[in-house]
Amino acid sequence: MLPLFKDAIDLACFRVKPVSHYAYTWWQPVLWLTVLSVLPALGVPENKAGITVPVGLLVAVTWLHALALTFFFGWWLKLGDRWDGQGSLFPLIVLASSSQLIAPLLNMIPPAVGIPISGVLVFYRLSVLINSLSKATGVEIKHVLVGLLLYLPTVFIVVLLALMLASPAGLLPPLPTDVGAATQQEQN
């Protein structure tokens, strides 16, 4: 088994090593992040744009998010000399995101069950990320949590950007046109 996959499983089980351990040849985390972003796109229902638009959009958004997270936490964890900055956080962040491989499987179960499981999966992914960043860098969890809260506006910007790009591409369902008329009738 490639060390990258073994390390991804270890992080998923909350077994974390120092940042210097997660040094791979440059193409391994790059390829793994791209695979992580392509697989959820394959579960998107057919639309008028075909498959290339959702795949391209999800790859771009995933890369934007991973790079922003890497740069932000690279800066944030160094504040106050909490972390010496040795090693790159990018492979660690990519490996901590590996649990998103489970997300496409949620399309196969009914929404009544899938939505709560999605919420648990988001919490789990955040827990893996926080634990990984804290233990690999030696920074206390409290500082990582505060950093994550400060990073939330960036998440909202990335999501809004993705929605702005997805809407004209036909990836979002159209808004009902009769909502205004129905609301008007209810008021009368």
Overall number of strands: 0
Computed over alpha carbons, the radius of gyration is: 19 Å
Strand content bin: under 5%
Number of helices: 7
Tell me the domain tally.
Answer: 1
Uncertain spans, ≥5 residues at pLDDT below 50?
none
* Fraction of residues in H or I helices: 55-70%
The residue-averaged pLDDT reads 85
Structural class computed from helices and strand pairing:
mainly alpha
Sketch the major β-sheet. none
SSE order, one letter for each helix or strand: HHHHHHH
Globular, elongated, flat, extended or rod-shaped: what is the shape? globular
State the end-to-end CA separation.
Answer: 67 Å
Features:
188 residues; mainly alpha; globular
Describe this structure in words.
- The chain is an all-alpha fold and 188 residues long.
- It has one domain (3-172).
- It has 7 helices and no strands.
- The longest helix is centred in the middle third of the chain and has 27 residues, at 52-78.
- The model has no long low-confidence stretch (mean pLDDT 85).
Question: Secondary structure elements and their pairing?
Answer:
Blueprint: H1 3-12, H2 27-42, H3 52-78, H4 90-96, H5 111-137, H6 141-166, H7 179-187
Helix pairs in contact: 2-3, 2-4, 3-6, 5-6
